[in-house]
Each structure stands twice: as C-alpha cells, then as structure tokens.
Amino acid sequence: MLSLFQNRDYAFLFGAQVVALIGTGLLTVALGLLAYDFAGNRAGLVLGTAYTIKMVAYVGLSPIAQAVVQRLPRKAVLIGTDLIRAAVALCLPFVTDLWQVYALIFVLQAASATFTPAYQAVLPDVLPEERDYTRALSLSRMAYDLENLTSPALAGLLLTVMSYHWLFLGTVAGFGGSALLVAVSVIPVLSGTAAARPFRERLSRGLRIYLATPRLRGLLALNLAAASVGAFVLVNTVVMVRGDYGAGETGLAIAMAAFGAGSMAAALLLPRLLDDLPDRRVMMAGARSLIVVALLMGALIWLDGLPAWGVFLLVWAAIGFLYSSILTPSGRLLRRSAHAEDRPAIFAAQFALSHACWLLTYPLAGWAGQAIGMGPALLLLAGVAVVGLAVASRHWPDGLPDAPEHDHPDLPEDHPHLRANGGRRHTHAFVIDDEHRVWPTHG
C-alpha cells in the first residue's frame, strides 16, 4: 500500500482526507461540550437533533449539490467546500442560541455532502489501475477507523491545557489544511458532456444509473445489511458497557477500539483477497457471516445475558471485520459502473442512499434497545440485515456478466457506437449511459 504514496497527487489527496478527518473528530468532541453548555442534562437531545440534521443534509442535499456544482472545476469545488466548513467551525464558538448551532451544522453538513462524493469520484481518475484503487479504498477505510480512535484521545489531551472552544480552531486548521493539500494536487479534468446536460437530467442521472445497474442495487441492499448491525453497535455499545458491565469511559473506548481494530484488519486483508476473488463473493460472504454473528450474539444476550468482557470484545472485533468487508469494496463497484463523466453523480447517489439506510437503522436501533432489550433488539436488526442480504442476492445474482451481449435496435446503422463495436449486436463492458438505458438481463 505504501507504494501508492509515490503518486504525488494521491499522497496530497490522502493527506487532505486525514487532516479533514482529524478536524471533524475534534469538532465532534467540541460540539458535545458546546451542547452541554447550552442544555445541561438535555445535551443528548441537542446532539440527537444535530446528527439528524446531518443525516437529512446527507440524504437530501448530496444529489442536488452534485448537480449544481457539476459545471464547476472539481478542484474549485473541493477547495470551496473545505473553506465553507472551516468558516462554519470558526463561527461555532461565538454562537449564543441553539438555533444558530443547528443552522451552522446544516451549512457544514451541506458542504460535507458536496465534498465527500466529489472527493470519492476523483480517486478513480487519479489512480486508474484497479489494483491501486483497491488499496486506496483500504487506506481510506483505515483512515476513518484511526480517526475514530485517535481524535477523542487528541481532544482529551488538548483539553488538559485549553478550553474546548479552542478545539474549534483545530477543526478550522483541519479543513484549511485539506483545502491547501487539494490546491497543490493535480486533479484530472472531466469532459464537458455531463456539465452540458440540463439541470433536471444532472439531478436524476446518478440515481437513474445507480438503480438501473444490478450490482449497485445489490450494493444498496448490502449497505442496509451493514448499517443494521453497525447501527446497533454504534448506538447501544455505550448502554451495554456503562450500564450492564459497569465500565467507565475507558471501557467504552476499549469496546469501540475493538470494533475499529476489526474494521482495520479487514481493510489490510482485503486488497490481496480482492486480487483473487470477485467483489460479490467477498461482500456476500461478509454479509452472511455478519448476520450469523449478530443472530448468535443476540440470542446469547436474550437467553443468558451479556457474555464475559473478553468475549464481548472479540465479537465486536468480528463485527467490525465483517462490516468493513462489506463496505470497503463498494468503491470498486461504483468505479466500474459508470463512465468517468458520470462518476460524480453515482458517487453522490451512493452517498445519499447509503446514509438513508443509516437514517432508518439509527432510530430503530435506539428504540429497540430501550423498548425490547438488547438481545431482542440485536435479533431485530439482524433480521433487517437478512432482508438486505435477500434483496442483494435477488438483484445481483451470481454469475451476472460485466460484458453481456446486447443489441441496439434503436440506433441507426452509421452510429459511432455501432461502428466502434463491430455491428448492431456486440459485447463490451456494460454501463448505463445514453446508448444503454436498460441492463440487458433486466428489461
């Protein structure tokens, strides 16, 4: 993986991701303390509202933002959204009312909903070889996991010598550093075809390509499976660790570290595994195994209570490993499912649809844990994952060819596409575009 950093532009872009993630981690801690200043014991309600605003912005604004900025240079979009996020972070220490917090969080998350899919769509163009791109996906996964582990520790260290308000300046520095690193990188320029389309078509094109592609419909269902069990872990771990095990904040950190360590282990293993195995086999195996682990753990908790602490940590590490094995290869599927000019649109569609899964499973995990208990709640979320796996198996069948034979009865004989591919009936790597509006085996 380290050989990727010989690519100067990728090294700068990865650095931009890392410093922005550190800034985001500091923001999360500072925002929690700011909420407590405003609301005291009701800070959880404030944070819950802020995170709901985040998810709504991600789901509702990402495709719209992508359609709006498609006419702009990609580098300018990335730098501009980083600077907007830095400006919002700079304003947060000076707010005097909760509505101002909510408004600024909405602006910040709207910028993130623009930046993240645009950044993800750039990487396949910077790393055109699939082997390199696969390793970049694993590095990105590890960066997220390391941020979850290190940012709270860094924030805790800084808070020993300064007020939490200064953490917002760390966030400003993170987003500003990200903008600077993007500025010194070279980002390939896309053709003007996509930008020339009418706004309505730009708005719907990514979603249309996504839902017309069998492997991406399968990916969406697998996102639901991963989000179901993942939401249980992220929402209810604190309740089990603090309430049932009687552990303190250190215990919670250890439990989440176990989950993150499992995820990082998968990210390290996957590049070599995906060199030899198809994406579908790896992702489906991960989903099946995740469901089995969740069902067994849910039944154990329901019938016999929580297991020994060491067993609990091993299970959380296994869930992290399997969760990552489902999600990490997703960029490979998106990369091969659209032409370069359409990749920003389908990455935005993936961003919105995958967060819609979390918008469903987060509240379900929280409600179920409180209403029916942890064991039944985990069984319920595992049941949702079973539905996701079943839908994925149906819409992304094994053996579906990437280059199906098809014809074009609607195209004239002298059409450039027919001339380039040897006639009306032909075979080539198939993606949904202007000449191919329906997948051959589905319509």
Summarize the structure.
With 443 residues, the chain is mostly helical. It has helices at 8-39, 43-69, 74-91, 98-126, 130-159, 165-183, 199-212, 214-244, 249-276, 279-304, 309-327, 330-335, 343-371, 374-395, 416-420, and strands spanning 405-407, 425-427.
Word description of this protein:
- This protein is mainly alpha-helical and 443 residues long.
- The chain has two domains: 8-188, MFS general substrate transporter like domains (Growth Hormone, Chain: A, Up-down Bundle), CATH 1.20.1250; 201-394, Growth Hormone, Chain: A (Up-down Bundle).
- It is 76% helix and 1% strand.
- It contains 15 helices and two strands.
- The chain has helices at 8-39, 43-69, 74-91, 98-126, 130-159, 165-183, 199-212, 214-244, 249-276, 279-304, 309-327, 330-335, 343-371, 374-395, 416-420; strands at 405-407, 425-427.
- A two-stranded antiparallel ribbon has the order 1-2.
- The two termini are 41 Å apart.
Model regions low in confidence, pLDDT < 50 over at least 5 residues? none
Strands in their spatial order, largest beta sheet: 1-2
| Assigned CATH superfamily of the largest domain | MFS general substrate transporter like domains
* CATH fold node name of the largest domain: Growth Hormone, Chain: A
Strand content: under 5%
Number of strand elements: 2
Please identify the structural class as seen in this structure: mainly alpha
First-to-last CA distance: 41 Å
What is the overall pLDDT average? 86
| Largest β sheet strand count, sense and barrel closure | 2 strands, antiparallel
- Provide the CATH architecture of the largest domain: Up-down Bundle
Q: Level of helix content? A: over 70%
Organism: Roseovarius tolerans
Subcellular location: Cell membrane
Keywords: Cell membrane, Membrane, Transmembrane, Transmembrane helix
InterPro entries: MFS, MFS_trans_sf
